[in-house]
């Protein structure tokens, strides 16, 4: 437009629609795979749902001066191979003896909520312990 060359409105429209569709797919995938939800009986991480009575122990968060804990290399809950960027992990020991990693933007908050929920399931007071959407924010597409 500035140089006087012809503007190809049809091609600009096709490129805009293609870009919008690509972004829509990424946002939809993030909403599915980035979900973190804790209810009185289950913990949902992405597409994987874990009953709280299967969690034997919520493992302690790592300190900077300690060597890497065994759970820090364990399988990540959900369908993702690893925790996304800018997310922290919380280790869980299951009733089978295996260890898995839950992840969130706020690992300290998730650790506290899971500890309370797991102990409430053990005492039968699960209705008061669970919180919904631990992150406190909507998932971002990145």
Reconstruct the topology from this structure.
Blueprint: H1 9-33, E1 36-38, E2 42-45, E3 48-51, E4 55-58, E5 75-76, E6 88-94, E7 99-104, H2 107-123
What does this structure look like?
The chain is of the alpha+beta class and 142 residues long. Helices cover 30% and strands 21% of the residues. It is built from 2 helices and 7 strands; from the N terminus they run H-E-E-E-E-E-E-E-H. The chain has helices spanning 9-33, 107-123, and strands at 36-38, 42-45, 48-51, 55-58, 75-76, 88-94, 99-104. The strands form 2 sheets. The chain has a 4-stranded mixed beta sheet, with helices on one face. The protein has a 3-stranded antiparallel beta sheet with strand order 1-2-3, with helices on one face. A hairpin with a 3-residue loop joins strand 1 (36-38) and strand 2 (42-45). The longest helix has 25 residues, at 9-33. The radius of gyration is 21 Å and the shape is elongated. The two termini are 33 Å apart. The relative contact order is 0.18. Residues 136-142 have low confidence and may be disordered.
| Separation, N- and C-terminal Cα atoms | 33 Å
Question: What's the overall average pLDDT, rounded?
Answer: 84
* Largest sheet descriptor: 4 strands, mixed
SSE order, one letter for each helix or strand: HEEEEEEEH
User: How many H/I helices?
Assistant: 2
- Uncertain segments: 136-142
Helix content: 25-40%
Please list the strands of the largest sheet in the order they lie side by side: 4-6-7-5
Radius of gyration: 21 Å
Q: β content, as a range?
A: 15-25%
> How many E strands?
7
SS content category: alpha+beta
Q: Tell me, what's the shape?
A: elongated
